[in-house]
Amino acid sequence: MNSAKILFIDDDQRICRLVKRYLENNDYLVIFAHDAAQANKLLPDDTIALILLDIMLPDKDGLTLAQEIRNTSNTPIIFLTARGEVDDKVTGLQLGADDYITKPFEEKELIARIQSVLRRTQTLSVNTQNIHKTQANFAGWRLNLLNHSLHSPDDERVEITSTEYSLLLKLLNQPNNTVKREEILYILSDREWSPLDRSADMAISKLRKKIEKNPRKPEIIKTIRNIGYQLTTAVNFSET
């Protein structure tokens, strides 16, 4: 039994009934808020494992609410909305959402996306000794663990995707230890590892282009031949 508690924020009663049935069919606990005001009363509940959030709320834009949530919490957020424009998806993910599902949707897709996000966030949660920290500092860089923002040593914000955030956090949690390619592939797609799959290498390459002075001669993320990758700098977790 899953028993994970999910907060669904949506003012459409029909969709709420549908999602309630889908989630309970798969042994999830679900609580509802029909506007941002109700949501803010429920959000302090630290037993909430995941938030499903609509963009079009009656009292506040869901994107704004997501940003407010992310400023104080790293609880996973999945947008579940009728707004399928590319700009909305990009904005949602940049604000720190973990996924974006467009209505209408099928039960199998919804449950699969929820399971994927929960597995990924459980795998990537910060180490126990750092659980109350909100920022990771490495090589002059700062990664905010609440809103998922990344700032350079020059204090410039560098845009990263939710996948790049997940990958970077995985490396930060294991400094000077090798993260295997199959572990990275699991973060990327939750699928079985294949020796011919180069998506892990491509993801590392994209991340290097954002944080390395010379991506062709990386100093922060080193390749461990035939095994994986290693973050070779010291990491300090602190409060923002």
Automatic annotation (TrEMBL):
One of its GO terms (biological process) is regulation of DNA-templated transcription. CDD domains: REC_OmpR, trans_reg_C. The keyword Nucleotidyltransferase does not apply. InterPro entries: CheY-like_superfamily, OmpR/PhoB-type_DNA-bd, Sig_transdc_resp-reg_C-effctor, Sig_transdc_resp-reg_receiver, WalR-like, WH-like_DNA-bd_sf. It is found in: Cytoplasm. GO terms for cellular component: cytosol; protein-DNA complex. Residues 5-118 form the Response regulatory domain. Keywords: Activator, Cytoplasm, DNA-binding, Phosphoprotein, Repressor, Transcription, Transcription regulation, Two-component regulatory system. Residues 133-233 form the OmpR/PhoB-type domain. GO terms for molecular function: phosphorelay response regulator activity; transcription cis-regulatory region binding. This is Phosphate regulon transcriptional regulatory protein PhoB (SphR). The lineage of its organism: unclassified sequences, metagenomes, ecological metagenomes.
